[in-house]
């Protein structure tokens, strides 16, 4: 029971730090490219207002960037403190992208951000523009390596289990790098960051316009955010569809949980729009379904089935039994019985070793597990469906609302009638939290939907934790929550303060926004 509590508390701590950290990351990704666009217009037109726009939004970017880097530190330390066996088991693969990300985030990216802020009077216009674009590209490349590591956890390619070291070892860095799950996750995640940055600029610009303040600045910022946001939200939806297809290919359990697909239906499967998943009865109560949609999204065809959860449990039971054989062979190899036949048999069955390890939750003697334990382990191979089901729908609902808001804002800006319909401005202002709600829900679906694995089908979560006491973890949870909450309060205070002050806080002494035409 203590081990179970340690695992659950370690999961809670990592979830808190990850979700806190990801409050800051999307805005960094999105604002960086918006700054690059604004400064590009300044260099091309030599219009001072675009330089001041870059400086104003850059000030908010800098606040967010500093706090984002700070919150990311504790998250990576947890791999060693709370997930020691995970770090031992997969460090050979997982460590490489994390090391590259650390170098990029804390050296390259931070250096470029410093050059952005302190280089205005030291570089030529084109040199500073190059720095700004490098900041934007660098922030995305930093995110790439984290997402490569996470994508490998979802789809562990380019690696093999070594029974002599009891570790996963890399066989192909290229396969890890070009993992289709990682690549789709990367483009989908950074595009969602662009949406967050665009909505941030759009909402604050709408606030200025509603207040009748700094109108030329606000109109231009509004127009850039509306255009960039419209392209970004469409990209998120297209890439989200591609992400769903990849999930259907390599993470069938997650896909079935997202859709509460309990039974394998004739192709093409219907999409459950809403309903109440019932894990006990394995049915979705009061389900409203849309015919054919699920099959088309998940399989890109009309004749391929989407396997339901009940059938997946049956498949996993077979894999658990094969995993028991693999575990028995592993014990023989570890004992020195390395005959050619045993090696060959282990090579044939080791792909199911992770499923055999699910039995460790119930017995130390995996080989002699009872039927009840096997069936319980098979049932454990499915995550709780309701949280994933509803988180996904909240994410999609936020995306649809943002699409409508960006479409209305883009239409108004192309007609040069931004102030004509004030309801569009109010809608943009009130939509400010939506990107973060959608992003946090998306990450919850991605990570919770992988359970019970830290490494899909390789290493169960309950085996990955460090040997700690619950009191140790409670202390760190409380400490991190208090510290991160202070940082979040500081972020909100500074953001609101400088956003309300507006571009006049720049005090350039050379330019008055009120005296410029729209």
Index terms:
518 residues; mainly alpha; two-stranded antiparallel sheet; two-stranded antiparallel ribbon; 17 helices; globular; disordered C terminus
Shape: globular
Helicity, in percent? over 70%
Number of DSSP E strands: 6
Low-confidence stretches: 508-518
Largest sheet: spatial strand order: 1-2
Fraction in beta strands: 5-15%
Protein structure class = mainly alpha
Radius of gyration: 25 Å
Termini gap = 66 Å
What is the makeup of the main sheet?
A: 2 strands, antiparallel
Mean pLDDT across residues: 87
Secondary-structure element series: HHHHEEHHHHEEHHHHHHHHEEH
Please work out how many helical segments DSSP would assign: 17
Description:
The protein has 518 residues and is mainly alpha-helical. Helices cover 71% and strands 6% of the residues. The protein has 17 helices and six strands. Helix 1 packs antiparallel against helix 4. The longest helix is centred in the N-terminal third of the chain and has 44 residues.
How would you sum up this structure in a few lines?
By secondary structure, the protein is mainly alpha-helical. It has helices spanning 2-45, 48-81, 84-118, 125-154, 173-177, 180-211, 215-250, 252-258, 293-299, 309-334, 340-349, 353-357, 371-380, 385-414, 422-430, 434-448, 470-501, and strands spanning 159-162, 167-170, 271-278, 283-290, 453-455, 459-460.
């Amino acid at each position: 029971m203590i081990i179970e509590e340690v695992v659950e508390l370690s999961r809670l701590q990592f979830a808190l730090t990850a979700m806190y950290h990801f409050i800051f990351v999307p805005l960094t990704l999105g604002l960086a490219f918006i700054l690059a666009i604004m400064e590009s217009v300044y260099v091309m037109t030599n219009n001072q207002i675009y330089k001041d726009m870059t400086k104003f939004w850059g000030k908010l970017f800098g606040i967010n960037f500093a706090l984002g880097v700070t919150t990311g530190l504790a998250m990576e330390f947890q791999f060693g403190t709370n997930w020691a066996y995970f770090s031992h088991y997969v460090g050979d693969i997982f460590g490489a992208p994390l090391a590259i990300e650390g170098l990029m985030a804390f050296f390259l990216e931070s250096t470029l951000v410093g050059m952005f802020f302190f280089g205005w009077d030291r570089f030529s216009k084109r040199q500073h523009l190059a720095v700004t674009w490098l900041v934007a590209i660098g922030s995305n490349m930093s995110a790439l390596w984290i997402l490569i590591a996470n994508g490998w956890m979802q789809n562990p390619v380019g690696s093999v289990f070594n029974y002599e070291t009891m570790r996963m070892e890399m066989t192909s860095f290229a396969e890890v790098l070009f993992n289709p799950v990682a690549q789709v996750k990367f483009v989908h995640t950074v595009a969602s960051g662009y949406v967050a940055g665009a909505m941030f600029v759009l909402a604050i610009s709408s606030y200025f316009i509603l207040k009748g303040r700094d109108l030329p600045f606000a109109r231009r910022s509004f127009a850039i955010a509306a255009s960039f946001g419209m392209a970004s939200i469409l990209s998120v939806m297209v890439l989200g569809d591609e992400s769903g297809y990849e999930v259907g290919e390599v993470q069938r359990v997650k896909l079935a949980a997202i859709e509460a697909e309990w039974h394998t239906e004739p192709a093409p499967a219907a999409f459950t729009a809403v309903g109440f998943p019932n894990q006990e009865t394995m049915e979705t109560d009061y389900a409203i379904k849309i015919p054919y949609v699920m099959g088309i999204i998940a399989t890109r065809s009309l004749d391929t089935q989407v396997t339901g959860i009940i059938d997946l449990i049956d498949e996993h039971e077979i894999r658990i039994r094969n995993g028991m054989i693999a575990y028995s062979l592993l014990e023989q190899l570890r004992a020195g019985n390395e005959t050619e036949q045993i090696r060959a048999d282990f090579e044939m069955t080791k792909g199911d070793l992770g499923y055999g390890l699910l039995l460790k939750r119930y017995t130390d003697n995996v080989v002699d597990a009872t039927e009840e334990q096997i069936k319980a382990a098979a049932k454990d191979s499915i995550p709780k469906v309701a949280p994933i089901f509803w988180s996904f729908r909240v994410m999609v609902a936020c995306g649809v609302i943002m699409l409508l808001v960006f479409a209305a804002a883009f239409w108004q800006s192309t007609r040069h009638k931004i102030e004509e319909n004030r309801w569009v401005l109010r809608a943009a202002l009130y939509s400010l939290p939506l990107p973060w709600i959608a992003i946090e829900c998306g990450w919850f679906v991605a990570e919770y939907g992988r359970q019970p694995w830290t490494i899909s089908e390789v290493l169960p979560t309950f085996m990955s934790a460090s040997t700690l006491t619950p009191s140790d973890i409670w202390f760190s949870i409380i400490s991190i929550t208090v510290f991160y909450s202070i940082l979040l309060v500081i972020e909100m205070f500074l953001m609101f303060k400088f956003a309300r002050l507006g571009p006049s806080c720049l005090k350039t002494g050379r330019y008055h926004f009120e005296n410029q035409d729209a």
